[in-house]
Amino acid sequence: MSKLKIGVIGCGSIAKYRHLPEYAANANVEIVAVCDIVPERAETMAAQYRAKAFTDYQEVLKLKEVDAVSVCLPNYLHAPVSIAALNSGKHVLCEKPMATSREEAEAMIQAAKANGKKLMIAHNQRFVASHQKAKEIIESGKLGKIYSFKTTFGHSGPEGWSVDGKDSWFFNKEKAFIGAMGDLGVHKADLMRYLLGEFKEVGSFIETNAKSYSEVDDNAVCVLRTESGIIGTLTASWAYTAGSDDNSTVIYGENGILKLEADPEYSLIEQYRTGEVVKHQLSRIQTNEEGGQTTSHVINHFVECILEDKEPLITGEEGKKSLEIILAAIESQETKRIVIL
User: Residue limits of the GFO/IDH/MocA-like oxidoreductase domain (predicted)?
Assistant: First the structure.
């Protein structure tokens, strides 16, 4: 079988540390093109992965040998570049948040359908071992009725991660559209949908109170209610001091609680009213710290879905539903009202 030929558009940190190494590690993939508006970045990645370097993504899309692309660009470019790629006959893996509006997200979904191509959004939390095990436990009924939850994703901010530091597009409202809520909160929105089902109501407090150079939010707390009546909180922050990262979730049920990624040794802990405690040492959640870049499973899943013609776990439709929670949180902050989805 011939290898899947990949182009990566955008050579910033997410491409450098996630997409490119994970494609390179996949035996069924050949990286043939990389693109960045900064020529040096494209050329450095091209040399490392023996690919062609480009500064115009349209040139990558013209390459007939390219089967699929990763869109690793600032948020405001996700939709237009993904749509162009789909219209040129490429499968697309797009970074999150998938778009900056419902209309953009829907246009991406329609482009994928019209061209018969895969559109996957790079939400990695569904692939985390503790999250998959938690879903299995919840669906088994062992926890009983689910009452509530709290989920948090916080760290010191993207300036330590982005190639441009404090000058990164992450802090520019025109390019990012949204800050910690779009960078981190949308991951947790997607996770909670995966674990608990669809949400119906969203309320929020969203602030820019930690970074003077940021034009977008760096702290947010949301209150959510599912269609089935489960209530909980979602916190997204770029204001946690270095070393105090939090990527945890706690689910409270009739018979006990589940603690996900909340313990330094055990990635999932089950605690029941009976006194039973089950501790799971599963593969750890991916981090941006040194040594944390093994595989997010996102790339391998995308490749598998193309080669085996399967539906991705996070389709455009799924990405849109997770985005809509974040858009509702913005609306709630602006209107000071609970928003009904």
Answer: 131-258
